[in-house]
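User: Assemble these into one structure.

Assistant: Restating your components, then the assembled model:
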Amino acid sequence: AQSVAQPEDQVNVAEGNPLTVKCTYSVSGNPYLFWYVQYPNRGLQFLLKYITGDNLVKGSYGFEAEFNKSQTSFHLKKPSALVSDSALYFCAVTFKNAGNMLTFGGGTRLMVKP
Amino acid sequence: GAVVSQHPSRVICKSGTSVKIECRSLDFQATTMFWYRQFPKQSLMLMATSNEGSKATYEQGVEKDKFLINHASLTLSTLTVTSAHPEDSSFYICSASDTSGVLVDTQYFGPGTRLTVL
């Protein structure tokens, strides 16, 4: 069975500082990994995904994530946080032949303070 | 591209009535659509998966007779909450993907529907 862990319920960072939102996963076979962002009372917006290729994936709004197979991690990063980045972030995993079914982490609330 | 719409965005109904929520993929063909439920400050709970033209597959614990899902076309899926009760109040989110490709494709999410049952 596949699973995703986001160990931090909330991450606080000052505007302009780098941010990291952590994600670790467990899946049989090669993982397909995703990050989504959710603003209040809205659906999820796709940020980026890792399927294969370069371990460092660049996505929307200046976000990037690094796939680390040995640590089974896919942490989300941004060099300089904006107040508007404050939202709920979800990491998700699936794998080939899973019918595109995602397993989500519990979510991490990112608070960027001016 | 890859826009998914949901309608209505918010609905309030009386207990015992039925509510239909529409999910549309606007610029791609959604061979597979997913319906999720999200409780406050919690992650998404998958309710069911539907493939165009076939019956939906429900997750364990989800009543298929209560949550009717229809995926009649490649751009539209509907979720009908039948005989709604206050405990059905929640945020319902759909997503759509095109799984006809060789690679795993991304799920694109609708904006969600806030259902309140009085």
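Chain B has a mean pLDDT of 90.
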